[in-house]
Amino acid sequence: QVQLVESGGGLVQAGGSLRLSCAASGRTFSSYVMGWIRQAPGKEREFVAAIGWGGSSTYYADSVKGRFTISRDNAKNTVYLQMNSLKPWDTAVYYCAASARDYDTVLTTAPAYDYWGQGTQVTVSS
Fold first, then answer.
1. Residue 59 and residue 122: Cα distance in Å, rounded?
2. Residue 124 near residue 16, CB atoms below 8 Å
3. What is the pLDDT of residues 46-79, one digit of tens each?
4. What torsion do the CA atoms of 25, 114, 8, 67 make, to the nearest 10 degrees?
């Protein structure tokens, strides 16, 4: 089992940047595939980005492609989401999620993940 704690959210103006971090507990972090999912008020959870074991495999939702970058540091048990050129519609609670896999892959839907953090609020003002 893994526990996830997000940080780095906040209020930013449109066009600005934020970097979210997700610290994971446990000794087998490198065997978890990771993702970021967001949920805006009144909307369903939306997949944002995913990364495989070693970080070479990544996948992005079309809505963030070219603006967001997911990465991971297995030595630090941490996954990151660099968000640039933020738009007001990026406003949401951002969740870090994990799933243990015995093969490298990326998971591109929210229900595929088994473990979730508590979320961090990102608010983009126009």
1. 21
2. yes
3. 999 999 998 889 999 999 999 999 999 999 999 9
4. 130
The strand pairing partners of 72, in sequence order, are 79
Encoded tokens for 4 = 């996830």
The angle formed by the CA atoms of residues 107, 90 and 5, to the nearest 5 degrees, is 55
Would you state the structure tokens that stand for residue 126, as one six-digit string? 């126009």
- Strands (E) across the chain are located at 4-7, 10-13, 18-24, 32-39, 46-51, 58-60, 68-73, 78-83, 92-100, 115-116, 120-125
Q: Which residues contact 59 (CB under 8 A, 6 or more apart)?
A: 49, 50, 51, 106, 108
pLDDT beneath 70: ranges in the chain: none
How does strand 32-39 pair with strand 18-24? unpaired
pLDDT recorded at residue 75: 94
CB 48 within 8 A of CB 58: no
